[in-house]
Amino acid sequence: MAIRMEIELSKAQYNRLPYKTTKITRGKTHGDIIGLLENHGIKDYQWTRLMGTDQLAFPLSVQRRGMEQRFLVKLTVPRLMYPKKNGRYGPTTMTYLENVSWRIFWWHLKSKLEAIEFGISDEVREFMYNIHYKLPDGTEVSLGETIIENAENLSKLTALEDKRRQVESEVIEE
After folding, report:
1. Could you tell me which residues come within 8 angstroms of residue 7 by beta carbon, excluding any fewer than 6 positions away?
2. CB 13: neighbour CB atoms within 10 A?
3. Which residue of 44, 60, 84, 174 has the fewest C-beta atoms within 10 A of its own C-beta?
4. pLDDT by residue (tens digit) across 123-150?
5. What is the mean predicted confidence (pLDDT) over 153-166?
6. Where are the alpha helices (H) located in 18-156, listed in sequence order?
7. Beta strands in 40-110, from DSSP E residues, in sequence order
8. Which residues pair with 132 in a beta bridge?
């Protein structure tokens, strides 16, 4: 089930909002997202729209301690909302900033995929709160929610090793 992410922006947030004047449509951004996924080797993906909420899902395969683990990543496109006045004396209504919401989602996904590609982070760190799995009773939960709800038990777990390595470098002036 898609989680509705409706975010009501304050005036200060709206004034600093990137892409608020974007001319790139939701449809164009949707296509850009598909291209982004495919350029990063994600060939299987699914878009779902439920009750006005758009969600992207794709499988994620991770190698940890010599074992392959498969997860499902689910990302919800935020619905950025801002009160706008209809005419000088008209009522103020909450307006869905659709093109802006989709563009911000694209940049959010792009930054995560590039962080993975260039070794700044890894798949689990980038998508922890978006990795979903089913419990034996069929309930679907996210990895991040499970960790937060069971924080008191974390001391019983062994930490995952950090696969990043530090490289020494020097500057050579010519």
Report:
1. 78, 79, 80, 81
2. 12
3. 174
4. 988 998 898 888 889 888 888 888 888 8
5. 61
6. 26-39, 98-117, 123-127, 143-149
7. 46-50, 53-64, 67-76, 79-85, 92-96
8. 72, 142
